[in-house]
Amino acid sequence: xxxxxxxxxxxxxxxxxxxxxxxxxxxxxxxxxxxxxxxxxxxxxxxxxxxxxxxxxxxxxxxxxxxxxxxxxxxxxxxxxxxxxxxxxxxxxxxxxxxxxxxxxxxxxxxxxxxxxxxxxxxxxxxxxxxxxxxxxxxxxxxxxxxxxxxxxxxxxxxxxxxxxxxxxxxxxxxxxxxxxxxxxxxxxxxxxxxxxxxxxxxxxxxxxxxxxxxxxxxxxxxxxxxxxxxxxxxxxxxxxxxxxxxxxxxxxxxxxxxxxxxxxxxxxxxxxxxxxxxxxxxxxxxxxxxxxxxxxxxxxxxxxxxxxxxxxxxxxxxxxxxxxxxxxxxxxxxxxxxxxxxxxxxxxxxxxxxxxxxxxxxxxxxxxxxxxxxxxxxxxxx
Length: 383
What we know:
By secondary structure, the chain is an all-alpha fold. It contains 16 helices and no strands.
């Protein structure tokens, strides 16, 4: 562990931030790219939605097989091999002649990229030492920034006539630059001792289960709010699609801003206190958003929700790694399973509830989930 009183942002740590940001760019380009695929292949809504579902399934598969891959081949192979695998999947996607190939391409890219992500998160934790929470928050903040670039790249492709396939040269160029500048410093920084510790690691402590559930519920709530925000805001008095889309944008803006602020507070407050604050802040904002009383209060409420839920995954992951730092690759892989399950199930389940009882009533699962998270955070048990 580092003995520095402040986080030492070495070149290797910046490379890890860039790698996570690169994969986040691909991850968040899938949703905006689906309408293009739908028009190209004449897909129905179900087939189009499957492209996001297979991505989530790929995350789960990576979480199940990731620890074994990292133990067998090491962090370096997982870090760079996963990124190359993502590029291979993206290449197959842009060349796909039919939707079945595009589905398999996204699945392959999701598996490869999620293995890389687990190795990245593990390496960030290792290099940051006692400042793990701060570094993971900064890495996630970088991912938020690059994620926001994906729709603009698609717009650029539309303007230049290259279409959604512009994603491929952008990803390729970014990966080449990152590898050229970062391969050597990252290779030197990753300790060989860490590999031997991982190979000898056994079962995770019982306390890890609590944080795994926190990750699962936290990501589920983030997607329940964010995925349905545009649709729900259409219910505002005098609302329109444009107004709803603008309101939903406050959610993403809040997510980026909150991760920047939280990265500055993690060292002073600690992950648990920050996560408790995030849960309470989301609970404060949700009634304002849910009421749809007027655009101002609804947007403010959604902003507070976005500010809170953006912290759920990185802080819960940091707490989870804290239960057994020597097994960080395994924990990060299991976190991928939790996140994948949440992304796969939560939006669909909430949609099913909305079909039966209305979207407004279905969203009441959010305060229930927040109370559950609060209970898990306040629950104390040795393990």
